[in-house]
């Protein structure tokens, strides 16, 4: 299990360059995981996906997704976190080397790369054989997500997911919670770190929630997450909430600076 992440600050050459210019990375020293499921919460642009990608790259996963044996090097698009990767230290109490990195933003590219590899002559079985026997492109976006989760996550390992709710309806997010529960119950060395805005996924029982808002990483309760607070206000008083949203000056939401004015 991954127990701790440390930023070796002496390895940072330029604090004004991305991603070290992000407040949450600039202030980061050390992070301890106390649960086998940890959720990164916070506004867009605060650094959740950046840190998750750096963890994945440090562990040996491809930047666009996959495991340590499958990586789409031809389209590795974001090398801006390389400095952060080199400056991180990951501390484990047990390290299986297994796992998977699921990045919603580049999932389409990952599937396409798998299909391209299957078109090449090979002595090994096609990759599609490990994903239900047919290309994931033959399924809907949500179905392909769930197929991947059900077929590749049923084992020990470090599983990193960047906004998996992007392709999942609320009902399928609940199905995903059941899948996580089964994996953690059956596999003692399975661990999930998930970046998410979903109030459904953030509500997983016993999960450690780390907020990236306000320029620092701090542990918060589920009730403190902006996602849950916004949805609760919307559900409890939809008409009043929308009237406030549409008529307030300045706007209810400030943008991606981590603020949530009026909430």
CATH architecture of the largest domain: 3-Layer(aba) Sandwich
Name the strands of the widest sheet in spatial order.
Answer: 5-6-7-3-8-9
Q: What summary fits the major beta sheet? A: 6 strands, mixed
What's the count of strands? 9
Helix-and-strand structural type:
alpha/beta
Report the CATH topology name of the largest domain: Rossmann fold
Q: CATH class of the largest domain, anyone?
A: Alpha Beta
The helix/strand order is EHEEHHEEHHEHEEEHH
Mean of pLDDT? 82
Fraction of residues in H or I helices: 25-40%
Helical segment count: 8
Q: First CA to last CA: what distance? A: 36 Å
Q: Could you characterize what this model shows?
A:
The chain is of the alpha/beta class and about 260 residues long. The protein has 2 domains: about 1-110 and about 155-220, Rossmann fold; about 225-263, no CATH class. It is about 30% helix and about 15% strand. The chain contains 8 helices and 9 strands. The protein has helices at about 25, 50-60, 80-85, 105-120, 140-150, 170-185, 225-235, 240-245; strands at about 1-5, 30, 35-40, 90, 100-105, 155-160, 190-195, 210, 220. The strands form 2 sheets. The chain has a 6-stranded mixed β-sheet with strand order 5-6-7-3-8-9, with helices on both faces. The protein starts with a strand and ends in a 16-residue tail after the last helix. The model is unreliable at about 255-263 (pLDDT under 50).
């Amino acid at each position: 299990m991954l127990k701790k992440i440390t930023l070796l600050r002496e390895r940072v050459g330029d604090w004004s360059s991305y991603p070290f210019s992000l407040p949450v990375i600039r202030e980061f020293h050390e992070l301890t995981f106390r649960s086998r499921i940890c959720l990164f919460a916070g506004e867009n642009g605060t650094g959740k996906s950046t840190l998750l990608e750096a963890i994945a790259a440090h562990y040996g996963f491809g930047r666009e997704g996959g495991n340590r044996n499958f990586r789409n090097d031809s389209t590795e698009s974001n090398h801006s976190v390389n400095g952060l990767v080199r400056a991180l230290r990951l501390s484990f109490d047990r390290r299986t080397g297994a796992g998977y990195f699921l990045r919603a933003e580049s999932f389409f590219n990952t599937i396409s790369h798998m299909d391209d590899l299957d078109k090449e002559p090979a002595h090994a079985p096609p990759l599609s054989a490990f994903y239900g026997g047919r290309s994931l492109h033959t399924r809907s976006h949500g179905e392909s997500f769930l197929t991947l989760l059900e077929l590749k996550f049923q084992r020990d390992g470090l599983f990193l997911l960047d906004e998996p709710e992007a392709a999942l309806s609320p009902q399928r997010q609940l199905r995903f919670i059941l899948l996580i529960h089964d994996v953690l119950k059956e596999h003692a060395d399975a661990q999930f770190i998930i970046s998410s805005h979903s109030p459904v996924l953030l509500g997983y029982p016993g999960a450690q929630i780390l907020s990236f808002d306000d320029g620092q990483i701090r542990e918060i309760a589920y009730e403190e997450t902006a996602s849950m607070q916004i949805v609760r206000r919307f559900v409890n008083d939809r008409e009043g909430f929308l009237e406030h949203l549409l008529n307030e000056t300045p706007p209810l939401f400030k943008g991606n600076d981590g603020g949530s004015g009026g909430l």
